[in-house]
Amino acid sequence: MTTNWKAALPDWIRNSRFTNYGGSAETRPVAIDCSLGVNPMGNIFGVDQDTLSLSETYKYPDNIGPLNEIILARWPSLRSAKLSWGAGSMGILANFARVLCGRSVKVLGISPQFLPGLMEFDMAGARVDTLSLVPDRFKIDAKELAGALKDDTTLLYLDNPNNPTGSALPLGEVAALAEACAKRGALLMVDEAYADFLDDAESAFNLEMDNVLCVRTLSKGYGMAGLRIGYAAIRDPELHEVYENFSVLYSNSEVSAAIAAKYLPRIDFEAVRKKVRYLKARVTEFIGGYTALSIADTHPATPICLLTWKNGGNLYEKLMDAGIRTEAGRFFELGDSSVRLRVPPENLLEDFFRLWRGLFD
Question: What pTM value is reported for the model?
Fold first, then answer.
């Protein structure tokens, strides 16, 4: 007998093509973990512990005001927009999927990219299509992507910088995509989870267009992945009202918001960007010396890149055997021969190189 809940599962859930992100249940020990996309510099505040008052945590949180002002001080252009908040950029994406749900919604993405963003819309019943990028460079062509838009496209989802390649479209090309979407009455959602590693002038926050939704997180460049705080700029008043009415309530904790408000103003983004550029250059130069591997199109300032083993072997297992954990290609609709690699912290860089030597000779 089929139980009721199984029979009630929608077909788009039962037959979803997507695999959830965040790594497998990997229990094997490794010397260096280069899997999840955290800030490779680790604790960028130099604080080992902090004490905050818990006396107000019995109440439901109502504490985003100070964070709002900190973000607006960095981005004055956003004063003409509305900021909305969620549990990391993932929480923002899930909230938008709750609003833009149902089979009449058509979402366009690319492959490879951050699939959980597309999966949220897929789970909400939207029809999701992707434009496949050409291996092994996986370069994004903005004109080709604009040409893939249909008259009934509801939303174009673009992670910029791209996850897993770390490549980034210039703002001018993102603006052209926004114009192409506007002509079809479609929204452009720009997921800028990794964009704090780039110059602020390249952010879609600078595009004052009602059909552009720009999403960011404190997880990457801010180095606060554990706080689970994300934010989005919404310029269309009606969309902002709908988002606020139907998003998950109380998703940002009192403690997380207090920690973020205390430490965000202390971040020296220029120092962070300089260090990450240095690490990325060292890693890509080293790996580029292996003819057995290819590195996809990537930006020198992002801490991630996509590697492909040209002979088709299982690159994830090859690196695991050497003591290096990465993110397997299957989480990006790619085969076993591809992995996403986050650059290691500087204190493990020489160990990283040592573990690689001789692997592909």
Answer: 0.93
